Amino acid sequence: MGRSPCCEKAHTNKGAWTKEEDQRLIAYIKSHGEGCWRSLPKAAGLLRCGKSCRLRWINYLRPDLKRGNFTEEEDELIIKLHALLGNKWSLIAGRLPGRTDNEIKNYWNTHIKRKLLSQGLDPQTHRPLQGGAAFATPQQQEAPTAIAKPVNSADEGQSCSTNLDEDRFPDLNLDLSISLPCHSPKGSPPSEGLATTAAAAATSRSSYSTQPICLCCHLGFQSSEVCSCQTIPNSHVYRYIRPLEEGQRINYSS
DNA sequence: AAATTTGTCAACCGCCCCTTC
DNA sequence: AGAAGGGGCGGTTGACAAATT
């Protein structure tokens, strides 16, 4: 019994994608859209596993990808989001438009981990390593005992914010009970946008709150260019983060 | 210049969750 | 209600490039 394999492995290519395969995949998705990944390879004339096609598209071929080096602002956002969410790369990626979970995961493992270690921080817990007093971000340096507790499976979807956390980490609200507005007119779902879908998914099992929540504000970016919650006329519309324009920087000054 | 080490990142693997029947 | 299928996620691997010896 058991499950059938996701594809016929004997007749599929593996390894690096060729330009021709890329072109085939792009052309197919352009004309048919993203659909059933399982049947896509055959339909597109590709000798690839459907999962492989999906991964290639999402991580490399998608037109809205940002590419290029991570900015300092993105660094800080990743660190803060990781402190909140743990290794939930897809959720973190959802707050960084143009970045993929794979890209962020790689970046974390190759750069940020080392950066945190050099600052005397445990990359997993964000707590100071033995006897260390260093902190990850300039803002965190202002709260030398602040510790962000990563979400674990037990408390995922529940509020993890405490008064103690708020005292320790004034600029980083750890309340993860981000949720859909229960008073949303006609029960309309959160609006479009990359950033909203992940958040909605992350909270789909949690209780509903009555206040719209801006993740930017929660992460201490409320006065930055990134945060546009103040300017959104419809308070029912969730815009956790606005994509940075090319070369745009977050203004930390408050 | 060649050999070795280290770093980076695209891609794969296996598991889990959600949806459908 | 439960099994099966499909998509998505996180961890890991391996190929390649760059740096060092």
Automatic annotation (TrEMBL):
InterPro entries attached to this UniProt entry: Homeodomain-like_sf (IPR009057), Myb_dom (IPR017930), Myb_TF_plants (IPR015495), SANT/Myb (IPR001005)
Cellular component, GO annotation: nucleus
Location(s) in or outside the cell: Nucleus
Superkingdom of origin organism: Eukaryota
GO molecular function, one term: transcription cis-regulatory region binding
Segments of this protein annotated with the region Disordered: 137-162
Cleaved signal peptide residues: none
Record-linked PROSITE patterns: HTH_MYB (PS51294), MYB_LIKE (PS50090)
Alphabetical UniProt keywords: DNA-binding, Nucleus, Repeat, Repressor, Transcription, Transcription regulation
Residue intervals of the HTH myb-type domain: 9-61, 62-116
Pfam families referenced in this protein's UniProt entry, alphabetically: Myb_DNA-binding
Domain Myb-like: 9-61, 62-112
Protein name, per record: Myb-related protein 308
Organism phylogeny: Eukaryota, Viridiplantae, Streptophyta, Embryophyta, Tracheophyta
